[in-house]
Amino acid sequence: MRRRVFELRNAVLRQFAATLAVSSLVLLVGLNGASAQSGTPAPDQGKAAAQPADAAKDATAQNQRRTDEFAEAAQAINGPAGNPECVWLGRRVVRLMWRDDLDTAFRHLDLYDRFGCPGGHIQAAFRCLTRFGAQIDPKVAETLDSRVHACWINPASQPQQAAAAASQPPAPTTGNSQPQPAASPSPAASPSPAPPK
């Protein structure tokens, strides 16, 4: 009886040893192939290792910028339009409307309304953004984002050229011509009273 137990035990140990040997062989072959490919690191790999640190710094700076923008909006805008959730959703809706993604904009607008944010502020901010349309570079996302934020903070803002042109009268086109007096609007002709009969 004891002999059978030892034989069974030896068979199990032999099977285990064979499995361990095959596994070790496969592992060594895999490591050999990996070490043959790794060689000396290329200069690009050194830059790739530095990129995660730069990405972390960029993410921290971007988060700080967003926090500052929310704080600026809360100080500049009274009421619910200055709340962080209204600022975030509202600017997102205006940006999506500018990019003609109206389906997504309307979905975000539903959330905006659910938070109790004023819909009129989105209208005013989008109206402001359309005034700055010529100054927005479609290839640079930062110009759109900064303009949306500026219009969210102050929806009544005007582009620089339009504001300067509105404050100064037009200059004469030729040097010898006299400035023409401005035409005064004539009152509308009123019907003459009918003579009494």
Task: Describe the structure in your own words.
- This protein is mainly α and 197 residues long.
- The protein has a domain at 64-159.
- It is 68% helix and 0% strand.
- It has seven helices and no strands.
- It has helices at residues 2-38, 43-76, 84-98, 102-114, 119-131, 141-153, 160-167.
- Helix 3 packs antiparallel against helix 4 (102-114).
- The longest helix is centred in the N-terminal third of the chain and has 37 residues, at 2-38.
- The protein is elongated and about 145 Å long.
- Mean pLDDT is 77; it is low at 181-190.
Main sheet: strands, sense, barrel: none
Average residue pLDDT: 77
Strands, total number: 0
Give the SSE order as H and E letters.
HHHHHHH
Instruction: Supply the number of helical segments.
Output: 7
Distance between the termini: 147 Å
Helix content: 55-70%
Proportion of beta-strand residues: under 5%
Give start-end ranges of low-pLDDT stretches: 181-190
**Structure class:** mainly alpha
- Rg from Cα: 37 Å
Shape assignment: elongated
Organism: Bradyrhizobium commune
Keywords: Signal
Biased composition (Low complexity): 38-62, 157-168
Signal peptide: 1-36
Search tags:
197 residues; Beta-1-3, beta-1-6-glucan biosynthesis protein
Which helices and strands appear, and what pairs or packs with what?
Blueprint: H1 2-38, H2 43-76, H3 84-98, H4 102-114, H5 119-131, H6 141-153, H7 160-167
Helix pairs in contact: 3-4, 3-5, 3-6, 5-6
